[in-house]
Amino acid sequence: MKSEVMSRRRILKGMGVTLATLPLARFLVACGEGTDPIDESNPDAGTGASAWATGGTSAMTMADTYPDPFAAGIGTVCALTCEATLGPCYATTIERQDISEGENGLPVRLALLVVNENCEPIPNATVDIWHAGPAGLYSGEDASDFCTSGDAEARAARWFRGVQTTDAQGRVNFDTCFPGWYSSRTIHIHFTVRVDGAEFVTSQLFFDDALSDAVVNTQPLYDARGARDTTNQMAGGTH
Question: Domain residues of the chain, as ranges?
């Protein structure tokens, strides 16, 4: 599809997430639901500490196999992805798959599929993602101090930021860690998609509340700060 006839509202989503840790719950995209690759017949699966992988992305190896969230296809009707702004926490990014910079946390394999309104892949688009670390802080001296809390280590780092170019199937993969929470926001991952260098859609990805609560309430690094103060439901859906 030629970029000159595309609008920001016409780059659409097919997105999934594979947690390297457990089979639980769903991944939400902006104001609509994303691909659900997980069998939720056992809602308690993975909620115990023994079911989780730890150690950040170093626990993930090339020999590991993770479920393909798009294995069953994405259908013939693709819902619109709602738009949002870049926000004050956007900062200079780095081209890479592993965006953790060795930070600890629950390892996550994030798979994103960029398609048009006919559910056809868009190759050579860039997908830029950024999110808070387990302690709820973003990185980068060029991000607002609201995002880093002025923390010297966070300002000097560039963790949990990265960009990849979609392949012929419109797909990119990122290795990262489950995001932490900060006050007044439900847990989320920011992304922006650019085609031919032009920003076409910017939005956010969200996790099912059951999964976020299981992480925050039971997992080291995440449980030290207590229960989060905002959920998807409290925020009015996924905002």
Answer: 3-135+162-225
Q: In Å, how far are 53, 61, 218, 220 from 50, measured between CA atoms?
A: 8, 19, 11, 12
| CATH dotted code for 3-135+162-225 | 2.60.130.10
* φ/ψ bin of 75: left (φ > 0), alpha (ψ from -120 to 50), beta (otherwise): left
What pLDDT score was predicted for residue 47? Answer: 42
d(CA 120, CA 10): 12
Q: How many CA atoms lie within 13 A of 40 on its CB side?
A: 10
pLDDT along the chain (239 residues), means of 10: 31 39 39 39 40 84 74 79 87 96 94 87 95 97 96 97 96 95 94 91 91 93 93 67
